[in-house]
Design a protein that fits this description.
Layout: H1 4-16, E1 22-24, E2 30-32, H2 33-48, H3 54-61, H4 79-104, H5 108-118, H6 127-151, H7 157-170, H8 173-180, H9 191-199
Antiparallel strand pairs: 1-2
Helix pairs in contact: 1-2, 1-3, 1-4, 2-6, 3-5, 4-5, 5-6, 7-9
């Protein structure tokens, strides 16, 4: 069916299919990294909040649109540089999602809602932003936390407990319940750390 939603999702996927970095899905398929990430976000949204409307379906799919165009090393490798990079990305992703939604035929109210969520505005206050954050964190835990751990063998247990607690703190009570209900696949080697972090 040709709808604003189908047009927007197709445009986001076409953009993310240009990612030169590749990732491997569970079945061994090699896909552009952000294309796979967007699909994992949509799949998690369907499991976690199937009632989400079209504006949020687009926001969730497009959260990392064309992320590779702004590499981390384009900013100073400091804490301040990291924060500036992240803030710049939020703005870039929000603008790109807004452009795509406009071209796909969404109304301005829906576009502004999606841009606010992708731009991570008013977390804990804006339910759209909180929904996007919940899905992001659930996808990170299920698909990327173990990979991240492998990239940082130098991190101490305390550092890991801090990372997990910060992630947990950003999630809503509904997302906490979902994560612990067996509805997502926790990374087996990190389960003891996750348990320790959230029970403290």
């Amino acid at each position: 069916m040709d709808t604003p939603l189908s047009r927007a999702l197709a445009a986001i996927d076409a953009a993310n299919a240009q990612d030169p970095r590749m990732d491997t899905d569970y079945d061994g398929t090699q896909l552009p990294r952000e294309l796979l990430y967007g699909r994992r976000m949509s799949e998690m949204l369907e499991r976690y909040a199937p009632e989400a409307d079209d504006a949020m379906k687009v926001a969730i799919r497009g959260q990392h649109i064309e992320r590779w165009k702004t590499p981390r090393n384009a900013y100073p490798m400091t804490r301040e540089g990291y924060l500036a990079w992240r803030t710049g990305l939020y703005k870039f992703h929000a603008e790109r999602v807004g452009e795509i939604m406009r071209e796909a035929g969404f109304d301005e109210k829906s576009i502004e809602r999606a841009k606010a969520a992708v731009g991570k505005r008013a977390l804990k206050v804006n339910p759209d932003t909180q929904l996007l954050e919940d899905v992001t964190d659930l996808v990170f835990i299920e698909h990327y936390m173990l990979e991240f751990a492998g990239q940082h063998p130098e991190y101490s247990e305390e550092k890991w407990l801090d990372i997990i607690r910060k992630t947990w703190k950003k999630m809503s009570p509904r997302a906490h319940e979902f994560a612990l209900s067996g509805k997502i696949k926790l990374p087996e080697p990190l389960v003891p750390l996750i348990t320790k972090a959230i029970s403290g």
